Amino acid sequence: MGNSLQDELLKAGLIDKGRLDKAKKQNRQQAKQQRQGKAKTTAKKTRQPTQAELEKRARDRELEQQRAEVRRQREVAAEVRQLVRNSRHPRAESEDDQPFHFENKGKIKRIFVSPETHKKIAAGKLIIVNDNGVFELVPPEIAEKIRQRNPALVIDLPDEQGPTEDDPYAEFKVPDDLMW
């Protein structure tokens, strides 16, 4: 059939092959951009989500947040468990063990420890932590790391308060190893 105008101009020597290829490339790019522009505008013109879909998305987001919180709590519990397992003070049962009483969530609890360990706890050199219902003894540095992750697991012993001025028993000191 007939040649295109570009072919005729090329044969006549009015344009060169490089310019012709460059012009064709620009035309293809413009056509591609127009097609993509139309696709984007048609995608924007799709239907709006219904109220039920919006509610479902909100529920899904909320469920995902809850799952993420549960995952985070499990990770914290695993970290605490690892800290306690790696640095707990060894406790061997013996005949001379004595109970150490402390308060946990409004209840008086006790653990049996050796007299040396009892003194370390009273002096603050060992701290009691709750490891899944089992009370373990750890150094204060580890207790602080646990407190940063979950403060409810560290058992704080009451500070020794000096007697008040009107206390009739102020001259009598209560020993640390008092048996109940």
Mean pLDDT: 83
Given helix and strand content, the structural type is alpha+beta
Strand order of the largest sheet: 4-3-5
What percent of residues adopt helix (DSSP H or I)?
A: 40-55%
Separation, N- and C-terminal Cα atoms: 114 Å
Largest sheet: 3 strands, antiparallel
β-sheet strand percentage: 5-15%
Q: Report the strand count.
A: 5
Which H/E pattern describes the elements?
HHHEEHEEHE
Number of discrete domains: 2
Q: State the assembly state of the protein chains.
A: single chain
| Number of alpha- plus pi-helical segments | 5
Low-pLDDT sequence parts: none
Radius of gyration: 39 Å
Overall spatial form: rod-shaped
Summarize the structure in words.
This protein is α+β, with helices and mostly antiparallel strands and 180 residues long. It folds into 2 domains: 5-37; 54-159, no CATH class. The protein has 5 helices and 5 strands. Helix 3 (51-87) packs antiparallel against helix 5. The N and C termini lie far apart (114 Å).
Give the SSE layout.
Elements: H1 5-12, H2 17-44, H3 51-87, E1 98-104, E2 107-113, H4 115-123, E3 127-131, E4 134-138, H5 140-149, E5 154-155
Antiparallel strand pairs: 1-2, 3-4, 3-5
Helix pairs in contact: 3-5
Q: What's the short story on this structure?
A:
The chain is of the alpha+beta class and 180 residues long. 51% of the residues lie in helices and 14% in strands. It has 2 domains: 5-37; 54-159, no CATH class.
